[in-house]
Structure formats: C-alpha cells, structure tokens
Amino acid sequence: MEGASEEREREKWNQRYQQGTHGTLPPDPLLIAAFDRYIEPLFPNAGHALDIAGGTGRHAIFLAAKGWKVRLTDIAEAGLANARKNAGDYASQIEFRVEDLTRFDGSCESYDLILVFFFLRREMFGELVKALKPGGLLIYKGYTRGQAKFGGGPTNPEYLFAENELLDSFRELHVLHYAELIRGCGLAEFVGQKV
Ligand SMILES: C[S@@+](CC[C@H](N)C(=O)[O-])C[C@H]1O[C@@H](n2cnc3c(N)ncnc32)[C@H](O)[C@@H]1O
After folding, report:
1. Which of 43, 140, 142, 179 is a Cys-bridge partner for 190, taking CB atoms 3.0 to 4.6 Å apart?
2. Ligand 1 in contact with 30 (CB < 6 A)?
C-alpha cells in the first residue's frame, strides 16, 4: 500500500506523462560524460544497471544502446509506457517496473551501476549503497536549495539537496566526481564507487 503523498505523486506524474508535458529524451550531460570517463573503462563488457525513477527512459535507453541490461523503475505507469515506446528495439534489454521507491529494498539485489536523476527520497540512500555490487557505481544528480532563486524544479526543500549533502550521505563510497553547479541553476552531481 502506498502512502497518500506517494499516491498524489503517482497521479501528478501520470498526468504529466499522459499530456506529454514532461519526458525529454536526450540523456543528461553528466551520464554522457560519466559513461566515457568511468562506466566504459570500468565495465567494458557492459553490465546490469538500475535506473531509479527513470521516467520515460532517457537514461535506460542510452545504456541499453551501449549493451547494458537495465531495470527501469518508476511509480508512474504512464511514464513507463512512454519509455517502452521510446525504447523501440532496445526494449528487450530493459525491464520496466512500476514501483514506489520510498519502499525500495536493496538488500537482495546487485547492480554494477545505479542512476538517480532528479529524484530525492533520503530514506532510500542506505538501500542504494546495499544494492550496488562491490566496485559498482552510483551516479546521482539533482537540484540543490540554490535552485530556488532561479525558478524551475521543485520548490519543496524536502526535495532539494543541502550543500555537500550527497558527499555527506554517501561517505561509504569512493568519490570519483562531485560538483555543485551554481551559475544559472542549483544542481549537485555525484559519481561514487562502492569499494
Ligand atoms: C523529475 S522526474 C525524473 C525522471 C528521470 N529520472 C529523468 O531524469 O529523466 C521524477 C520521476 O520520479 C518519479 N517518482 C516520483 N515519486 C516516486 C516514487 N515514490 N517512486 C518511484 N518513482 C517516483 C516520477 O514518476 C518521475 O518519473
């Protein structure tokens, strides 16, 4: 059973995806850069990835095109339906899974790569680390509290990163990349490896 706030999230996102007002397809520049710099050198034969709250599949499709098997999870069925269409022939490499990720349990899963883009639920941080295989990578990007002055993105501070929050929250991981972007936007990006 989902909580009322998650049910509202599901409805809100389903509506956006049905109306086609959300769901860009180009992958985020962080994933493109991290692929060349970290993912490909560490996993030349590809591997298993988890795309958390992956929406219409821009990152799952990018990875599938590079030979990865991807589990794409999201609470919004309409987003996943769009993702399946967007994936075309790559759909066979992607498992589309409707899931409320506030209840994500990483204990019996093992991924080489976990992506979290623009989705923040602090209660799942520990589970993300558990779900990585040793040597696996976590790539996380989202808005910081600095975004408030630029407009766009969430306004609820609960969904915004505090300064250095990703660094502080994933201390168990070896940090390969961390940046807070403050010109024209407020964004934090993190790439860490489980040792
Ligand atoms: C801003 S979108 C980001 C989509 C994707 N990661 C990207 O960067 O293109 C946030 C996503 O979180 C999903 N979401 C919201 N609450 C969720 C929950 N409790 N469990 C799983 N997914 C959720 C929404 O359906 C939506 O697809």
Report:
1. 140
2. no
pTM of the model: 0.96
- The size of the chain, in residues, is 195
**CB 51 less than 6 A from any atom of ligand 1:** no
Q: Is there a contact between 174 and 151 (Cβ–Cβ < 8 Å)?
A: no
Count of CB atoms situated within 10 Å of the CB of 123:
10
62 CA from centroid of ligand 1 (Å): 17
pLDDT of residue 91: 98
Tell me if 54 CB under 6 Å of ligand 1. yes
How would you write 10-55 as a 3-class SS string? HHHHHHHHHHCCCCCCCCCHHHHHHHHHHHHHHCCCCCEEEEECCC
The CATH number linked to 53 is: 3.40.50.150
Q: By residue range, what is the domain housing residue 132?
A: 4-194
The per-residue pLDDT for 39 is 98
Count of domains observed in the chain: 1
Ligand 1 contacts CB of residue 95 (under 6 A):
no
Query: Which residue has tokens 């306004």?
Result: 155
Q: What is the largest CA-CA distance in the chain?
A: 43
Low-confidence residues of the chain: pLDDT under 50? none
CB 83 within 8 A of CB 72: yes
HSE-CB at 191 with a 13 A cutoff on CA atoms is 14
pLDDT recorded at residue 153: 83
